[in-house]
Amino acid sequence: MQYQQYSMAETIRHRDSVFNDGQSLWCYNLQNLFKQKNSRTFFVKTQNKSKTKNLTLGESHIQYSKQKYISLVNSFLKILFKQNEMIGFVLEKNDQTIEIYGDTQEWIDSFKNLTIQLDFTSFYKIAKKIGQGIAAQVYQATNKTNKLNFAAKIFEKKRILLEETEIIAINKELHYLRLLQHPNIIRLYEVFENKQHIIFITDLHQGGELHHSFSRYGLEENQVAEVIKPIITAISFMHSKGIFHRDLKPQNILLKEIDAFDTITLIDLGLAEKFTKEGKYIYNRCGTPGYVAPEVLQDKKYDLKVDVYSIGIIAYLALTGKEPFASSNYDELVQKNYDGRISLINLNASENCKDFLKRTLSKDSKLRLSSDEALEHPFITFGKGNHIFSPYKGATTQRMSMTSLRCSTDASSENSSIPKTFRGKIQQYMNSFQTPKFEINQEVKKEKDENLKKRKEFCIRKSHLLKIKQINNNPNFE
């Protein structure tokens, strides 16, 4: 049989891969761990021998014989073509190789996210840059075969190879992307590696970051619950596997469609970790100031509930349009976050909403809700009388947060209309109110007077705090 020769001379060998785990391509006696998906007959070539053989596909292995298995995780995958038709694939790991020919498309689609491929440019074309992070850049990439668009997260290897912790971190991120298959968590399709780059191919979410949907408008309570529920659902799934995200913030939550909160997806698992009682991780103090739980900044041992605190911050932002610790000064922001004081006394919200915020934003993690408890809270489960809806909130004010200012150039931020998802709901509630115009004006005037009073009181408190700060030495956070 003629086939495309398998050569990696122009790219890298497996022993030079960032994902080289030192394991063999072959492993043995996995009968008790092997979960069978399906079996097929293929033409197989290995060790200069060729034969027709029945193989069985599992979750992370291919059963070759009764006691012998092929390891898929982090093996190099080469897809073979003849005259633009797929005819098979090759797997290699630590200089051990097997070639498999036949109808392999379905098998490859099911396991290619477990393997490492080498020829990114043969399958994808970069369209445009859509994001920038500390460790990687994100581009929109088009699959040359099916013409579908994906997100390509591209890491520079020269940066990763400088420190062993970076290699460990990217391996962990890849492991969690493969493990956490959930509708509200970013999906990994393929992994590529060459001498210069590592590339993760994931879903493309064209609805933008979550905060674009409420950067100009604080949401009504029922809308906040709609936003928060899929986030908690995804986090509860992660926690069920003993993993926390540790960097929950609106920028790490994407929507597949603009303002479609039912398409919410968590991204960036770069700081995700398996919880340990010892509390020792690659990075202990991590996350984004303004969203991180106080115990993380205080260098205390922490548990899975740090994610719940971040969810509480996002809920507060969605409801009020303000970040509770917002400051133009970074040190002040960190200090506020460290202290963790958030007042809910003057919050115009239902008792269920206040209780949800109080119990997710508790400084004491022992009193804080778990993700499962948060998912069952009345504010999230939603029911008649659970939420307050104010017909004047979105219509009379435009509340800008620090986050919205940072992304004011985004097209969705320039749209002055109310999000499409909720136009009908808002109109329905508006029609139900028959308040005379003069009563509305009185309410607006009263609200302005109260806000002016609160601003004066805040200025007085701020003056006192500045004097106290001059006397006391604040902790230094890097």
Word description of this protein:
By secondary structure, the protein is of the alpha+beta class. It folds into four domains: 14-117, PH-domain like (Roll); 120-202, Phosphorylase Kinase, domain 1 (2-Layer Sandwich), CATH 3.30.200; 210-417, Transferase(Phosphotransferase), domain 1 (Orthogonal Bundle); 438-478. 33% of the residues lie in helices and 21% in strands. It has 16 helices and 18 strands. The protein has helices at residues 105-111, 120-123, 157-160, 164-179, 221-240, 294-297, 306-320, 330-339, 351-360, 371-375, 378-381, 393-396, 402-406, 411-414, 420-432, 437-471, and strands spanning 26-28, 36-46, 49-58, 61-63, 68-71, 76-82, 85-93, 96-101, 116-117, 124-132, 136-143, 149-156, 188-193, 197-202, 243-244, 253-255, 264-266, 273-274. The strands form four sheets. Strands 1-5-4-3-2-8-7-6-9 form a nine-stranded mixed β-sheet, with helices on one face. The chain has a five-stranded antiparallel β-sheet with strand order 10-11-12-14-13. The chain has a two-stranded antiparallel ribbon with strand order 15-18. Helix 5 (221-240) runs antiparallel to helix 7 (306-320) and helix 7 runs antiparallel to helix 9. Mean pLDDT is 82; it is low at 1-10, 391-440 and 471-478. InterPro entries: Prot_kinase_dom (IPR000719), Ser/Thr_kinase_AS (IPR008271).
